Amino acid sequence: MAREARARYPHECAGALLGRVEEDGGRRLDRAVPVRNERASERERRYLVGPGQILALEEAAQATGLVILGFFHSHPDHPPRPSEFDREHAWPWYSYVIVPVRDGEPGEPRAWRLRDDRSR
C-alpha cells in the first residue's frame, strides 16, 4: 500500500484488500491489490474503483478462495482520517485503509469500518 501511495503521489491511489473471513467472524488480510483510479477529475482528492474492476477483483479473489474485505486509498498531504466524502461513499461491512502521504512519503495507515447504521 505504501509503495502504491508513493508511486501515485500527488494523486490518490486505490486498491482492494483480499483475504478470508474466519469462523469467529475475524478477518485475515492475505494481500492488498492496487487498482487503477478511474476518477476523471480531482484525482488528488478522490478515487474511483469502477464496477468492472470490482467484478474482476471478485472473480480473482474467488478463484483463490479469498473475498474482498475492503479497499485502501491514499490521502496526499492530508491525515489518514476518513473524509465526509469517504464516509458517504463507503459500504458497511467492508474495511477501509487510508495511507497518508506527506510530500511523497507514506505515513502510518489507519483502518476503519462504517457501521451498519452509517454513523461511522
Protein architecture, described:
The chain is an alpha+beta fold and 120 residues long. Helices cover 22% and strands 34% of the residues. It has helices at 2-8, 51-63, 84-89, and strands at residues 14-21, 27-35, 67-76, 95-102, 105-106, 110-113. Strand 3, helix 3 and strand 4 form a beta-alpha-beta unit. The model has no long low-confidence stretch (mean pLDDT 95).
Major sheet: 6 strands, mixed
Q: What is the overall shape?
A: globular
Using the CA coordinates, give the radius of gyration.
14 Å
Identify the CATH class: Alpha Beta
**Assigned CATH architecture:** 3-Layer(aba) Sandwich
| Strand composition percent | 25-35%
Classify the helix fraction into a percent range.
10-25%
> In terms of per-residue confidence, which ranges show pLDDT below 50 for 5 or more consecutive residues?
none
N-to-C span: 23 Å
SS content category: alpha+beta
What name does CATH use for the topology? Cytidine Deaminase, domain 2
Question: Could you provide a short overview of the structure?
Answer:
The chain has 120 residues and is α+β, with helices and mostly antiparallel strands. The chain has helices at residues 2-8, 51-63, 84-89, and strands spanning 14-21, 27-35, 67-76, 95-102, 105-106, 110-113. The longest helix has 13 residues, at 51-63.
List the helices and strands and how they pair.
Blueprint: H1 2-8, E1 14-21, E2 27-35, H2 51-63, E3 67-76, H3 84-89, E4 95-102, E5 105-106, E6 110-113
Parallel strand pairs: 3-4
Antiparallel strand pairs: 1-2, 1-3, 4-5, 4-6
Features:
120 residues; alpha+beta; Cytidine Deaminase, domain 2; six-stranded mixed beta sheet; 3 helices; 6 strands; 22% helix; 34% strand; globular
